[in-house]
Amino acid sequence: MRGSSRTLVEIRFEEYITGRKSGWIDLHSVITSADDNKKRADLRRKSVTAEYFISGANATAQTSEIVACDASGSRVGAWPFVAGHLILVVGINKIVPDLDSALHRIREYAFRLENARAGWAYGTPSTIGK
């Protein structure tokens, strides 16, 4: 499974995984192709227990915190609790000194992108939570 991530798009991982060259089953594509709302919801719940969960983080603090904004919460739930293996792809531009700087990066940069993505993907704006 993969979390929505601009970083994964930019490094062309999504193109790789959906192109079937990887040999992996892309659960994200399976979920989004389901035509029944109940089935799609069930698949989303099961997807966070995938053996591998690949995602991007919006900020990584040098004080050990990893921060992300995620409209659906799917990737943030998979990170600490249920994925068998977690792979986070984080560019050097996302490394910040401390948690305050990470939260600032969320508010001033990442949230605008996630809010636009949520509007496109879900038809509703995102929100900043915890």
Overview of the structural elements:
The structure is a single chain. With 130 residues, this protein is of the alpha/beta class. The protein has one domain. The protein is built from 6 helices and 5 strands. The strands form 2 sheets. The protein has a 3-stranded mixed β-sheet, covered by helices on one side. Strands 1-4 form a two-stranded parallel sheet. Helix 3 (27-33) packs antiparallel against helix 4 (37-47). It is globular.
Helix/strand-derived category reads alpha/beta
Give the strand order of the largest sheet, numbering strands 1, 2, ... along the chain.
3-2-5
Number of distinct beta strands? 5
Spatial gap, N to C terminus: 23 Å
Stretches where pLDDT is under 50 for at least 5 consecutive residues are none
Average of per-residue pLDDT values: 84
Number of domains: 1
Biggest pleated-sheet summary: 3 strands, mixed
* Percent strand: 5-15%
Number of helices: 6
Strand and helix order: HHHHEEEHEEH
Rg from Cα:
15 Å
Shape: globular
Q: Name the helicity range.
A: 40-55%
